[in-house]
Write a structure and sequence with these properties.
about 675 residues, six-stranded mixed β-sheet, about 15% strand, alpha/beta
Length: about 675
């Protein structure tokens, strides 16, 4: 589909690619990977024709269409969401207008028997068939489904695009590109402005799309779910792996180990050759052999090892003071601007917990963070516990850096103890190695400033971390370093993120924001995703059995109730403590909350055991029925093995029925 031959690109006499060749085939799903600055975005621009290479050719057939989504683009602000997205169907709309003109002409003419009229009918028929094949009669519905998949609601479609943030307008551009259905999709960080639901929708769309996809992304879960081929840009060349990203990581490690061994062998060979030359350089009897060795030395092609892998680097937060047992308690917290953001927020975050705030953009995640930081007014009671030292990373955090300091000085000013001896290693792990460490902050890009602010936060002595989209400008290696540091962190952490891979194994509780409510889910991010999917499926289906109704009720119990409140006893027992006051003795509200959660855990375990017991009972009854049928046959009447099997199965069934009754009684006692 697209053929790249001997591609050569250089900037300021420094080669970015050195005679690179590869082919993009039909339905390839390619992840383009490499360190920042390796040239991933440049390669996408060359493939779509925006940028020209220094040398080489990129062959694209005339019939092949290419769609390209850059990281940053100029956006239109003079129309509505619907009208802007409708531009993707410009050709279809022109075709529809042409059909209307032809239809009007046929209705006005009366020369039905002439050749000219018959030719008009044939042209109309052919064009109409093509119009139908392009989905001309359904494009409005397809457009709405795509926009809704990317997070828009129906009421958004007639709003001006100028009312939306840059991230939402980028979604409109993504929708336009997807709706054009190009033969090749080039996507540069498409998930940067998407929430988890929209990312999952895009994954499903790309899996079913009949086109080739080349994408650059630092979202590991996304590229694993979408791609089947990985192209790595390294040392000015490419390495092509016909596997998805996780498998590529394993193969790349093996290849690097082979490179190291080959490099060491080559260095030994070079050293031995040089030693021979030096030893016999001035002996006439060895002159021919010396000349041969010198020629061999000149012909040796140096083996290059891929960039040094710093994934083993581990950061550790400096020691901090112990905080109170309950860093955050929210009691009926609410916030409104010109519209309701959320209300009836009741939550307790315990010391040492790592929790995630998730939900669609604009549902109040960052707003609640600002309430916790006491940056904005709010309704209800929000108590920040005793001895809390907050480390806060927000999108504007990078703007607070001193422009006149270098990268190294910025970190050196906050580093303490033995960490100061490892500053260069830490900077290298976050892509500030070598000369980049001496660059002044004022010359850094927005992404570089965000990474530098993140490093500063990692070195500050805090016991309560609040991170708002911390991974937006980090590559996978840097995200791994950050994730490991947070996992080892002794304090409490609240993480606002849409990165599933980053949150997986890091958080043990999820708060979902949506519809003016905040719901709590116990478990990790994928537990929440599965729970969310189950609730969505339950909402789409109409319960027809009492058991289904009970299951739905149990699901509601697990996620509190529809209002996001805890039970009345818990709410009534709360004290309206001062938001900044000292820690208080364990109150009834906390005891009720803890008791409620423990009972929910017990109920969940018992439900699982009851289901397993019911499944075993069903299997035993099926087996008994089979044995009974065999025993009813006169030919088997004297078969003692069948009689013994039947007796044993009956005993197992009786015992399992007793177990089921006991479990059911316990469940009735603990369920809320």
């Amino acid at each position: 589909m697209i053929s790249v031959e001997n591609l050569f690109v250089e900037f300021s006499a420094t080669p970015l690619y050195d005679h690179v060749s590869f082919v993009i085939n039909d339905r390839d799903r390619i992840a383009l990977v490499g360190k920042n600055g390796a040239g991933k975005s440049t390669l996408l621009k060359i493939l779509c024709g925006i940028q020209q290479p220094t040398g080489g050719t990129v062959a694209i057939p005339n019939t092949t269409t290419v769609g390209y989504l850059p990281q940053v683009m100029k956006l239109q602000d003079d129309t509505t969401v619907r009208d802007e997205t409708r531009k993707a169907f410009a050709e279809t709309i022109r075709m529809g207008r042409k059909l209307e003109e032809m239809q009007r002409e046929m209705a006005e003419r009366t020369d039905y028997e002439t050749e000219d009229y018959m030719a008009l009918v044939e042209r109309f028929t052919a064009l109409h068939e093509r119009y139908l094949m392009m989905g001309g009669e359904q494009y409005e519905a397809v457009m709405e489904r795509t926009l809704q998949g990317l997070g828009f609601v129906r009421s958004d479609l007639d709003r001006p695009t100028s009312e939306f943030s840059g991230g939402w307008r980028m979604r409109i551009e993504l929708a336009k590109i997807l709706l054009q259905k190009p033969d090749v999709l080039l996507l540069d960080e498409p998930t940067n402005h998407l929430d988890i639901e929209s990312i999952q929708w895009l994954e499903q769309y790309l899996a079913q799309a009949p086109c080739a996809v080349v994408l650059v992304s630092h979202d590991r879960a996304f590229i694993n779910n979408v791609t089947n081929r990985t192209i790595e840009i390294v040392c000015g060349r490419i390495e092509d792996y016909k596997v998805k990203y996780d498998e590529y990581v394993v193969l790349r490690k093996e290849r690097r180990e082979q490179q190291i061994r080959a490099y060491e062998n080559q260095q030994k060979e070079i050293a031995d050759t040089k030693a021979f030359i030096e030893r016999f350089r001035y002996q006439a009897t060895k002159a021919i052999q010396v000349q041969q060795r010198m020629r061999q030395l000149e012909k040796i092609v140096p083996i290059h090892i891929d960039e040094v892998d710093n994934s083993a680097l581990r950061l550790k937060f400096p020691p901090c003071l112990r905080s109170g047992d309950y860093p955050v308690i929210c009691d009926e917290v609410e916030k409104s601007y010109d519209h309701l953001v959320f209300q009836h927020v009741n939550l307790i975050i315990k010391r040492g917990e790592k929790v995630a705030f998730v939900g669609k953009n604009g549902e109040g995640k960052s707003t609640l963070v600002k309430c916790i930081m006491n940056q904005i007014p709010y309704g209800g009671t929000l108590k920040v516990g005793h001895n809390i030292q907050i480390g806060y990373f927000a999108q504007n955090q990078a703007q607070m850096l001193d422009d006149e300091l270098t990268v190294f000085q910025t970190i050196d000013n906050v580093a303490r103890g033995e960490v100061r001896l490892r500053i260069n290693d830490i900077l290298g792990a976050f892509m500030f190695g070598g000369e980049a460490a001496e660059k002044k902050v004022k010359f850094l890009s927005g992404g570089e400033r965000s990474r530098l602010a993140m490093i500063r936060l990692l070195l500050e002595p805090v016991n309560f971390l609040i991170l708002d989209e911390p991974t937006n400008h980090l590559d996978m290696q840097s995200k791994d370093v950050l994730k490991d540091a947070i996992k080892a962190f002794d304090g409490t952490a609240v993480i606002v993120s849409h990165d599933r891979e980053f949150l997986d194994g890091l958080v043990e509780k999820v708060y979902e924001f949506g519809g003016g409510k905040v719901r709590e889910y116990l478990g990790g991010i994928y537990d929440w995703i599965r729970s969310h999917e189950n609730l969505a499926q339950a909402a789409m289906s109409q319960p027809s059995q009492p058991a289904q109704a009970m299951t739905a009720k149990q699901g509601r119990d697990k996620t509190k109730d529809e209002t996001g409140r805890t039970n009345d006893a818990q709410t009534a027992g709360r004290s309206k403590a001062d938001p900044k006051g000292d820690a208080q003795p364990l109150t009834a509200e906390v005891m009720n909350y803890a008791e409620r959660k423990e009972r929910q855990r017990q109920a969940s375990r018992l439900q699982k055991q009851i289901k397993e017991s019911e499944d075993r009972i069903a299997r035993l009854e099926t087996e008994l029925q089979r044995l009974n049928t065999l025993l009813c046959d006169p030919a088997n009447a004297a078969d003692m093995k069948l009689v013994n099997d039947y007796t044993a199965q009956q005993a197992d069934l009786d015992k399992e029925m007793e177990r089921w009754e006991l479990l059911s009684e316990k469940y009735e006692e603990v369920k809320i």
